[in-house]
Amino acid sequence: MNLIALAVLLTGLILLIAFHPMVFVDRRLSDEVVHGWQVWPEIWQFIADPDLSDPGDLIMISAFLTSVLLIVVAPFAIPLFRASRVAWWLAAIVAGTALVGLSGVLLVDYSDVSPEAEKLGPGFFCLIASQVLNFLGLMFIRREMTSDIPSDVSP
Questions:
Q1: Would you give the end-to-end CA distance of the chain in angstroms?
Q2: How confident is the model at residue 150 (pLDDT cuts 50, 70, 90)?
Q3: At CA 25, angle to CA 94 and CA 64, rounded to 5?
Q4: Fewest beta carbons less than 10 Å away: which of 27, 29, 66, 127?
Q5: For residue 131, what are the CA distances in angstroms to 45, 64, 82?
């Protein structure tokens, strides 16, 4: 079961890496295309001069940063998650919260279907899919159960 978890977590990591060169948003009115790697300078600019009046940006940036950190670390932390249920619960709750927070805010921001609206690129779907796969990979991690019954006692 943990090999399935590793495969799913690594697929999420590959999708996160693929998100960077892909088109994230196609702004039709200005003929501008935003690639995934262009998100990082915008985050850096926000951190340098935060606009604390916009909760949507705060949710998006915090969810994006925590999910990227967890997606990168999770495939290599499977032994830790198997050994510690507290670490597993913490990672699962953070992954689920970041998934709901980031995908929810992004879908609300880009849900306009009018012809002049911004069009979501494949990078957007790679980012959301990497978060979903990370969460599912964490759900596939299983601990080996130890029996509390002594071996010389039959049930």
A1: 27
A2: low
A3: 15
A4: 29
A5: 24, 9, 20
